[in-house]
Amino acid sequence: MYKDLAFAGNAEDMKRLIAAAGSGYQGDVWIGLKDRFYNWWWSTPFPNPYINDSTSVRLWAKNQPNNKRWDKSLCVTFMNGFWYDVNCSATFSSVCHNNSNTDTHGLHRYVFVKEKKTWHEAQANCRRYHTDLARVRSHTENEQLQAVVPDGVFAFIGLYRHLWNKWSNGAPSTFKYWADGHPLGPPHNCAASVINAEHHGHWVEKSCQSERHFMCYSNQTRVFRLELKSTVDLEIDPVLRENVIKEIEARLKEKGFTGDFKLTWIS
């Protein structure tokens, strides 16, 4: 029984994936990496999700978001009422917001910061002197934000997303094995591993709707035998045996064994 589409946490995993395809195979295979382009987040002490769909306030400029996805993250700037995705390492002015239950008209909710900083520098500055980078959750808030940002000026707001950061099994994606020049920008959001003499398993992005061969993975099962010495007869006391198993499980978890494992008593 297989668990999910294949994932690779390191170079050794990629070697095993290529070997599993067989020496005679040339082509590309789906792996479990997908860029969830619709998942964005607002910067807050506890990040709030923003789903880029018809249920959310969408203020993207024409043909946005469209930035290439070579970097690990994308951030968003605001200009003349619209959003533009940019490299988080670029420098722009920024807009902070202040939480206030008494500011019902938003007169002091947003603060424009003219000094240009990277997104993370702007975030740190807003958190130090205000609440955080600006959030826009309604057209009313968008109008309030537009009132403090000069026309024609790009300013960071608190919207961002991480790219290609999670496998289909839920594991974080930290290891990268992209082919040169990849990944590119939209619209392709699923990763395939290209197995041939040139690429040796390197990843490229493909349309998720296209049909391709695919690679799965299964968990390895290993059996370990542990012998216990006891001063009492454990065979005649099932409750005591169960308590011993629970104690061993707890000790294993303390030592970092967090994966799936099962302890069984064998006479």
Task: Provide a brief overview of the structure.
It comes from Solea senegalensis (Senegalese sole). Helices cover 18% and strands 26% of the residues.
Report on this model:
Residues 5-97, 105-217 form the C-type lectin domain. InterPro entries: C-type_lectin-like (IPR001304). Pfam families: Lectin_C (PF00059). The chain has helices spanning 11-21, 119-129, 139-148, 238-254; strands at residues 4-5, 27-34, 39-42, 48-51, 73-79, 82-87, 92-97, 110-117, 132-133, 155-162, 190-195, 203-206, 213-214, 216-217. By secondary structure, the protein is an alpha+beta fold. The protein folds into 3 domains: 4-35 and 164-217, Mannose-Binding Protein A, Chain A; 39-162, no CATH class; 228-267, no CATH class. The strands form 3 sheets. Strands 3, 4, 5, 6, 7, 8, 9 and 10 form an 8-stranded mixed β-sheet that branches. It is flat, with a radius of gyration of 26 Å. The model has no long low-confidence stretch (mean pLDDT 82).
Order of helices and strands: EHEEEEEEEHEHEEEEEH
How many beta strands in the DSSP annotation?
14
The main β sheet shows up as: 8 strands, mixed
User: How many individual helices?
Assistant: 4
| Poorly predicted segments | none
Number of domains: 3
SSE arrangement:
Elements: E1 4-5, H1 11-21, E2 27-34, E3 39-42, E4 48-51, E5 73-79, E6 82-87, E7 92-97, E8 110-117, H2 119-129, E9 132-133, H3 139-148, E10 155-162, E11 190-195, E12 203-206, E13 213-214, E14 216-217, H4 238-254
Parallel strand pairs: 2-13, 7-10
Antiparallel strand pairs: 1-14, 2-11, 3-4, 3-10, 5-6, 5-10, 7-8, 7-9, 11-12
